[in-house]
């Protein structure tokens, strides 16, 4: 059976593939079927063989998954495609997305490529495929090429008896433990005396409590939702979710822990909570990671997405002596810019989004929530040894008084992206004519600067809407700025302005 290209292309989602994998939600039919996963895996094989110059039978491919309900069936479909082509196929079972990339790096595995079955924090009925080569995660254009390949490949059945198994998460845990031990003087239990709780959101991150923290001597009592459960019964496994952050905050305060860590489903994102219940997420997480890295990379450039606060810029540049480059939203966009900066001779140790996606140049530019947690733990242990607190690192970080995101839907426009770009052009022209300062350079959308705050209007990465982020340094300022933005958008009849209604 051949699946039409137009059907497969609907599964493209930035730099990965995503769709509805199981029934159960009204009006959401299955789009990522096992047959689709089968031919997409074959398409990745075609792509990888061309990229590496190897014959398919000489390739080594690792396959892993998070806790989603559809993972087992999709994995079988992928492994059928791999074994049918004679590939050395390795089933890594429950794993994290960063671990799947590291299967290419570890000398014990030396994979040519890997496939992670995950849809990050999306609802239980969704799933997807992420692809890695030795160069890291594939790009959007690569995904399109993989799907085009897939549209030419029939569904195939292989021999699952030939699939090898490997406990990748155990090897990955060893890798993380080694990093912490080396940084803290080589002791076997360098975290002894520290109480650290983990919220894995019933995703794949429970290993961090059992196979990293506990083995390094930490007390992990009070950790929550470590058991994999694809129904995600407790909260959305997403550090940006308010309910999720409330859960890890409660776990920290109830158990009187020193630190709390929360991961998303496939552990490529994290946020933290300090002993006093203060969240280390979004701007604070960026500031914390930058402060940890600053002594080793003085004067370097931190790459973030476009919606970070002015207070973060002040902290990075005035307090840490670093440079701040606001780039486009989308973790791959931020990471790719970091790579470009380093290749051009500008030292940039960190690319990080407010979402919690953070990649370090020292760690293969891999967005890895567990690695961020490792850096945080090392800093916490060093601070503790000196009688200091982790929070001291960001004590001088300011915060806006107010902040809000408005999402203006574009209705009735087939070419919604073209319409949105026209809105942005006229929006900038009107702001300039009104004497409002426009931040330059802007790598995404139009950022207006007001005496007490700012507003950023941009196009959504994938959807027909225009997010508007507004922050203010005084109470009531968001409403004032939003009203001025609304005036500048008068006459755009396809924009849903109801979000401004009080």
Automatic annotation (TrEMBL):
All copies of domain Alpha-D-phosphohexomutase alpha/beta/alpha, residue ranges: 13-146, 171-277, 283-396
GO biological process, one term: carbohydrate metabolic process
Pfam families xref list: PGM_PMM_I, PGM_PMM_II, PGM_PMM_III
Keyword check for Isomerase: yes
Domain of life assignment: Bacteria
Gene3D superfamilies assigned to the protein according to its UniProt record, in alphabetical order: Alpha-D-Glucose-1,6-Bisphosphate, subunit A, domain 3, Alpha-D-phosphohexomutase, C-terminal domain
Keyword entries, A-Z: Isomerase, Magnesium, Metal-binding, Phosphoprotein
MF-aspect GO terms: metal ion binding; phosphomannomutase activity
Required cofactor names: Mg(2+)
Entry annotated with the keyword Transmembrane: no
Stored InterPro entries: A-D-PHexomutase_a/b/a-I (IPR005844), A-D-PHexomutase_a/b/a-I/II/III (IPR016055), A-D-PHexomutase_a/b/a-II (IPR005845), A-D-PHexomutase_a/b/a-III (IPR005846), A-D-PHexomutase_C_sf (IPR036900), Alpha-D-phosphohexomutase_SF (IPR005841), Phosphoglucosamine_mutase (IPR050060)
Family from the record: Belongs to the phosphohexose mutase family.
Protein name in UniProt: Phosphomannomutase
Species of origin: Selenomonas ruminantium
């Amino acid at each position: 059976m051949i699946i039409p290209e137009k059907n497969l292309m609907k599964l493209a989602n930035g730099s990965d593939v995503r769709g509805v994998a199981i029934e159960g939600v009204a009006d959401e039919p299955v789009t990522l079927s096992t047959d689709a996963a089968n031919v997409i895996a074959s398409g990745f094989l075609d792509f990888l063989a061309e990229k590496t110059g190897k014959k398919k039978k000489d390739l080594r491919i690792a396959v892993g998954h998070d806790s989603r309900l559809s993972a087992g069936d999709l994995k079988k479909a992928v492994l059928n495609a791999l074994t049918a082509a004679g590939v050395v196929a390795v089933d890594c079972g429950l794993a994290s997305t960063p671990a799947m990339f590291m299967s290419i790096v570890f000398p014990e595995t030396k994979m040519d490529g890997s496939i992670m079955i995950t849809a990050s924090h999306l609802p239980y009925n969704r799933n997807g495929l992420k692809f890695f080569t030795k160069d890291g995660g594939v790009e959007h254009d690569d995904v399109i090429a993989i799907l085009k390949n897939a549209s030419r490949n029939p569904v195939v059945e292989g021999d699952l008896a030939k699939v090898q198994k490997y406990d990748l998460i155990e090897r990955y845990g060893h890798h993380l433990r080694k990093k912490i031990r080396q940084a803290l003087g080589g002791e076997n239990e360098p975290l002894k005396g520290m109480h650290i709780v983990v919220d894995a959101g019933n995703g794949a991150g429970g290993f961090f409590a059992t196979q990293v923290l506990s083995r390094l001597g930490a007390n992990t009592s009070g950790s929550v939702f470590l058991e994999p459960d694809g129904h995600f019964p407790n909260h959305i496994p997403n550090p940006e979710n308010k309910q999720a952050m409330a859960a890890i905050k409660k776990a920290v305060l109830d158990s009187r822990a020193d630190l709390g860590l929360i991961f998303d489903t496939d552990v490529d994102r994290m946020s933290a909570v300090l002993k006093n219940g203060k969240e280390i997420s979004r701007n604070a997480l960026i500031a914390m990671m930058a402060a940890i890295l600053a002594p080793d990379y003085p004067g370097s450039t931190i790459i973030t997405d476009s919606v970070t606060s002015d207070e973060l810029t002040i902290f990075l540049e005035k307090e840490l002596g670093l440079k701040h480059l606001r780039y486009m939203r989308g973790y791959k966009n931020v990471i790719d810019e970091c790579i470009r900066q380093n290749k051009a001779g500008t030292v940039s140790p960190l690319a990080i989004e407010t979402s919690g996606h953070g990649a370090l140049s020292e760690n293969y530019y891999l967005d890895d929530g567990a690695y961020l947690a490792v850096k945080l733990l090392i800093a916490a242990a060093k601070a503790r040894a000196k009688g200091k607190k982790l929070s001291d690192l960001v004590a001088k970080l300011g915060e806006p008084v107010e902040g809000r995101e408005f999402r203006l839907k574009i209705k009735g426009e087939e070419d919604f992206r073209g319409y949105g770009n026209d809105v942005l052009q006229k929006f900038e022209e009107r702001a300039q004519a009104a004497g409002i300062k426009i931040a330059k350079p802007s790598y995404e959308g139009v950022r207006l600067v007001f005496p007490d705050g700012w507003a950023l209007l941009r196009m959504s990465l994938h959807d027909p809407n225009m997010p508007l982020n507004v922050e203010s340094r005084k109470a009531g300022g968001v409403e004032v700025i939003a009203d001025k933005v609304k005036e500048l958008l008068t006459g755009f009849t396809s924009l849903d302005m109801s979000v401004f209604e009080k």
